[in-house]
User: Fold Short chain dehydrogenase from Chitinophaga defluvii.
Amino acid sequence: MKIIIVGATGTIGKVVAAELGKRHEIIGVSAHNSPVKVDITSAASIAAMFKAVGPFDALVSASGGGYWGSFEKMTEEDFYLGIKSKMMGQINLVLEGRKYIRPNGSFTLTTGILAEDPVKDSCNLAVVNAAVNAFAVSAAMELGNGVRINAVSPGVVEDSREKFGPIFPGHVPVSMERVVAGFVKSVEGMVTGQVIKVY
Amino acid sequence: MKIIIVGATGTIGKVVAAELGKRHEIIGVSAHNSPVKVDITSAASIAAMFKAVGPFDALVSASGGGYWGSFEKMTEEDFYLGIKSKMMGQINLVLEGRKYIRPNGSFTLTTGILAEDPVKDSCNLAVVNAAVNAFAVSAAMELGNGVRINAVSPGVVEDSREKFGPIFPGHVPVSMERVVAGFVKSVEGMVTGQVIKVY
Assistant:
């Protein structure tokens, strides 16, 4: 398969790219460090990326961020950081990518445990993760042409334990092996409309 | 209690206003048919509404819409209809309203069964409903001052059976009495951070 990995240089993206790369052709795209670049907060940049890459069989997005910080001071503008990036960035990858995806292809988006188990300062990311989960469930029914879509929702990954452990009190880190397996299940398996929870 | 009901003239809002009005002071606001008006897609309009109404004990939002239609033709712009209205409209009611709400007050937002049980053409509303559910769960931890927040998520209401029944195949309509009870539980009860599912 020809697989686009968006966020191919990130903590999760690079490991997923390495695993899927054993068996498939990988087109890694990221904001800065790839031959084909993409800024997922821009629909025009997403359109240009797909035009450059052409038809493909699977897309994995391990990309997108949001506002992390004080709830008390959070403004509408802060909230739109996550809407434009992790939420609409990933949704736009599907809305535009469906024009190029081959029949029986698949989209795999990334969310996270905050969708249902938020922590302090995570409100914006909790919301956009839940939004993308619901998008995967709902879009799966309507994509057509045998195209599948799932969201992988990881907990705190062991590789990020030092960075995220203290701000996710009581969250039990999950192995990167399990996270990668979630992506493999979505791309190489048959499931669709699933939130693949890795926690 | 002094209770603001946003969307006080809608199918659900008017019944909730009638029930809560038996025991509380109701300030009904809507886009057109109320002394104090509000356009929830505008943060400035929301700010003006709260300024006009002043301190309050509870806010019930039974307002907000989104894009309903062809998934195949759905654009980013269509998707923002729901983001700006039912999602950020309701979230902005909380972000701005927390400046005016009295200690131990409550916010009650409205979502719907599509968040987890979508139907054809409902993708945008499925997503924004799920987003608002996650907001209620997450914001409840951080509001402070004893302020509570919940989302009421109704199924198809019997009163709308004629309109929605055919486009929600296999959904079992719920009584308006049960829906109103969900709002009463949120406003007069003690729960917080809950998605009160009425289906």
